[in-house]
């Protein structure tokens, strides 16, 4: 069970007056020796020594750090920009600034110079904290930009500061009486952060979130999850993403839990194996990659061993089926599942560090159902959720406590209401729905209608039990030349059910039929080739051209088409070798597809698919 949301001795209405600084003070008082934050040196691989601060040490450290920021002239209501990986300087600065009454604003490390300029001008920050010399080069032109009020850069890496402020110089003993009066004086209605949308289309918009909205969402999430007290969390997504802000900063303060910082997302598997967390959150692409890696290992096992695993997985899925229907599994099935889990499934999960997981979750984009069913075969039910930056993260979620439907994104949490417009667009309102978008003059532009409803841009449907099922983004729906509406995500997830296909983009707006760009999975493809005796030049690019691989992908597309309507079927495709990612621009930092970027990059290939 999660910790009680209200500390013993607090009045019943105390949660309505909560702020992040009050939670930090409570944790330092009630849980002073509990571990709060752990990290490795920047070059750490997850296996070496970790440094840990307790909640009492966090409270003392952030007070000294807040004094340093106050010495730079940062005060109540000021925005401070941060571009760093998931390192302690980022996490601790975030809390120190909040204690000071300032508003921390994280920027994606992959942001383009024009996006950085837009954000700096929009939030009017005078101070930015960046990781090292490479990041400083991106920000230095703004120091002399007449339209940008940026005055100072703070550099986190020792020895890289040049003429800028070294981060270590911020740690000082608080002395000024005025500083002591201002510390921890935030009100529930004050802005806690501004989160800029990652910009799949257009310029990023600054979403203003208050203490009240964030903590209302935290309470609502605690009502639907079951976790051990002071649960650990592996923090590897960017802090510029609302999911990691909630999971990696705000919920740990609310729950007095333990955060493990993972600065390099590529090392998350190693950290998971070390920590063996009770909870693990991954955007769909993370779960897809883990699934592909496990499938690759299973494909190389002897047939007898695979048969044992397949039998155990079938038992696990049968057990999950009863739970999904809200029924108690028969005693005989409980016995078979307990035996299969203990003898077969747990040892396999332990190899990846997932044997203690009681809450596995995903959000950010539609989750491929075959991936969910794959993990259900290990007894791990991924609780898919849905929400936006504008809803402070999760608005609906599946829950082991209140029920789940595989393929849906669950039911609304307590802090929001959900309804569907006439065209199927999802609308939300409630305590955890944002105040509005930040204007350069510091005011907030509301995006709500007169009754407080937010049009989300997502299309969905609800079933008789109140579960929400996503269809697609309203702006991303394909309208064919015959006027038929097609959800690209639905078709793409059908294509990705075959392990060879790691990524897919479907195209066909105002065209008579659909085509697709398919990317071979870099882990599953070599394993499939080895298992089928396919000899290439040892590269994924070599496999793309191999007749056996092309024939298998043809069968995969045909299998997907057999489950789709005629309008949704893919008539032609181009097979690619290079995986799409944030570094090459096809994905956002939160691993969502930038469709326009991909279409522009492969415009010639897409046009060729419509040639005679």
Automatic annotation (TrEMBL):
Write out the catalysed reaction: a long-chain fatty acid + ATP + CoA = a long-chain fatty acyl-CoA + AMP + diphosphate
Q: Where is this region: Disordered?
A: 31-50
Keywords, alphabetical: Fatty acid metabolism, Ligase, Lipid metabolism
- InterPro entries, A to Z: AMP-bd_C_sf, AMP-binding_CS, AMP-dep_synth/lig_dom, ANL_N_sf
Q: Which residues form the AMP-dependent synthetase/ligase domain?
A: 25-438
**CDD domains in the record, alphabetically?**
VL_LC_FACS_like (cd05907)
What the record says about family reads: Belongs to the ATP-dependent AMP-binding enzyme family.
Q: What is this protein called?
A: Acyl-CoA synthetase
Q: Which organism is it from?
A: Streptomyces anthocyanicus
């Amino acid at each position: 069970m999660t910790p009680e949301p209200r500390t013993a001795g607090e009045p019943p209405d105390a949660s309505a007056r909560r702020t992040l600084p009050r939670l930090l003070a409570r944790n330092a008082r009630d849980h002073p020796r509990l571990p709060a934050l752990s990290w490795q040196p920047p070059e750490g691989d997850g296996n070496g020594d970790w440094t840990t601060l307790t909640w009492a040490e966090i409270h003392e450290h952030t007070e000294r750090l807040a004094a340093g920021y106050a010495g730079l002239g940062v005060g109540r209501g000021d925005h401070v920009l941060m571009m760093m990986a998931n390192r302690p300087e980022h996490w601790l600065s975030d809390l120190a600034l909040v204690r000071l009454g300032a508003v921390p604003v994280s920027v994606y490390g992959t942001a383009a110079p024009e996006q950085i300029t837009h954000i700096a001008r929009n939030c009017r920050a005078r101070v930015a904290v960046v990781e090292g010399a490479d990041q400083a080069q991106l920000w230095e032109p703004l120091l002399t930009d007449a339209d940008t009020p940026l005055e100072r850069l703070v550099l986190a890496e020792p020895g890289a500061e040049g003429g800028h402020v070294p981060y270590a110089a911020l740690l000082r003993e608080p002395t000024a009486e005025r500083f002591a009066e201002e510390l921890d004086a935030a009100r529930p209605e004050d802005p806690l952060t501004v989160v800029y949308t990652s910009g799949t289309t257009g310029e990023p918009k600054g979403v203003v979130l208050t203490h009240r909205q964030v903590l209302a969402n935290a309470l609502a999430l605690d009502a639907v999850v079951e976790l051990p007290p002071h649960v650990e969390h592996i923090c590897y997504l960017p802090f510029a993403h609302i999911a990691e802000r909630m999971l990696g900063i705000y919920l740990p303060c609310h729950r007095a839990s333990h955060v493990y910082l993972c600065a390099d997302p590529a090392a998350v598997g190693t950290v998971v194996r070390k920590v063996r967390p009770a909870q693990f959150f991954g955007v769909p692409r993370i779960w897809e990659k883990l699934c592909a890696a496990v499938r690759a290992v299973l494909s190389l096992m002897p047939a007898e061993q695979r048969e044992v695993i397949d039998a155990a997985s079938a038992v696990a899925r049968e057990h999950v089926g009863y739970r999904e229907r809200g029924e108690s599994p028969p005693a005989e099935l409980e016995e078979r599942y307990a035996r299969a889990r203990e003898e077969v499934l747990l040892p396999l999960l332990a190899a990846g560090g997932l044997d203690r997981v009681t809450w596995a979750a995903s959000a950010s984009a539609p989750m491929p159902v075959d991936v969910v069913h794959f993990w259900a075969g290990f007894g791990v039910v991924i609780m898919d959720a849905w929400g936006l930056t504008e809803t402070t993260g999760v608005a609906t979620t599946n829950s082991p406590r209140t029920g789940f439907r595989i393929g849906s994104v669950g039911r609304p949490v307590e802090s929001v209401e959900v309804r569907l417009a006439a065209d199927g667009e999802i609308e939300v309102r409630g305590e955890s729905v944002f105040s509005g978008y930040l204007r350069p003059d510091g005011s907030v532009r509301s995006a709500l209608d007169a009754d407080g409803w937010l049009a989300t841009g997502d299309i969905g449907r609800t079933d008789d039990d109140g579960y929400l099922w996503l269809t697609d983004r309203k702006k991303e729906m394909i309208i064919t030349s015959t006027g038929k509406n097609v959800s690209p995500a639905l078709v793409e997830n059908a294509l990705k059910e075959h392990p060879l296909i790691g990524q897919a983009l479907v195209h066909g707006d105002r065209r008579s039929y659909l085509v697709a760009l398919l990317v071979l999975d870099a882990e599953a493809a070599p394993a499939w080739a080895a298992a089928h005796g396919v000899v290439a030049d040892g590269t994924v690019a070599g496999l793309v051209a191999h007749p056996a691989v092309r024939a298998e992908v043809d069968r995969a597309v045909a299998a997907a088409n057999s489950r789709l309507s005629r309008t949704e079927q893919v008539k032609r495709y181009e097979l690619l070798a290079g995986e799409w990612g944030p570094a090459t621009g096809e994905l956002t930092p939160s691993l969502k597809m930038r469709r326009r970027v991909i279409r522009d990059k492969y415009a010639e290939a897409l046009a060729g698919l419509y040639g005679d």
